[in-house]
């Protein structure tokens, strides 16, 4: 039975996840990279701060990592004072980052040599879902490791799906992000056309959410258009990174990616148009600026 949980990656997603774990009654051991502030915030809630990732692993039965990319996952795991240096045989590590599934599989193979189980467990739901413990979690790895750790996942998520062997949680997450990215581009382009023709943006939203175009993405992003407030819940540069991973993985698998390649290029253009740190819905800003229209609700 898991009692001691380690945590690395107290960012926009990681911090609320860590708070829910400690609320769930687990002993939490947190590491940090450069910014000690979030670790100190967790310390006030009862967590123990560790000065190295190795120390996090030495105290933990189960460790969660949430970092931006494959290189940082590798550093967290295998650096001089990384998690692998302190992990005991039987330790389970779940990486919630969105990274290349082939890289994740290589990490799992390397850790298995010392008796450590590694799972990919990417998440969807944004900071709001992390705070509300309603995340969707897609898990790849050994079924036995998933079953041992599921009580922890149940504390932080609502939809917990075991997808199969290592890398398959990431395959599901990449599919999710490709769909969301494609929807954002399609919605932005369609709204631009209708508004350019003269339709009121607020009335257009009423039409679309009551018609067959209604979707989770439409309802999540259209209010951003109407408020003209692109404060990030998921930054455009992170979606651009994820779509780049989709392209690379599809190429390695030999899977056709015609539409996905166009979507990736669209996000890449917007990333270079200085929208990188805005919400991924800022693709809409590109269309508005180039068409000379506004999606903002009229007073």
- Class per helix and strand makeup: alpha/beta
Intertermini distance: 57 Å
**CA gyration radius, whole angstroms:** 20 Å
What percentage of the residues does DSSP assign to strands (E)?
A: 5-15%
The string of secondary-structure elements, in order, is: EHEHEHEHHEHEEHEHEHHHHHH
Question: Can you count the beta strands?
Answer: 9
Q: Which strand order do you get reading across the main beta sheet? A: 3-2-1-4-5-6
**Share of helical residues:** 55-70%
How many helices does DSSP assign?
A: 14
If you had to describe this structure to a student in words, what would you say it looks like?
By secondary structure, the chain is of the alpha/beta class. It has helices at 14-23, 37-44, 53-59, 70-78, 83-86, 101-112, 126-132, 143-156, 168-197, 201-209, 216-227, 236-253, 258-275, 283-291, and strands at residues 4-8, 27-31, 48-49, 62-65, 92-95, 117-120, 123-124, 135-140, 157-164. Strands 3-2-1-4-5-6 form a six-stranded parallel sheet, sandwiched between helices. Helix 1 (14-23) links the parallel strand 1 (4-8) and strand 2 (27-31). Helix 1 (14-23) packs parallel to helix 7, helix 9 (168-197) crosses helix 13 and helix 10 (201-209) packs antiparallel against helix 11 (216-227). It is elongated, with a radius of gyration of 20 Å. It starts with a strand and ends in an 8-residue tail after the last helix. The mean pLDDT is 97.
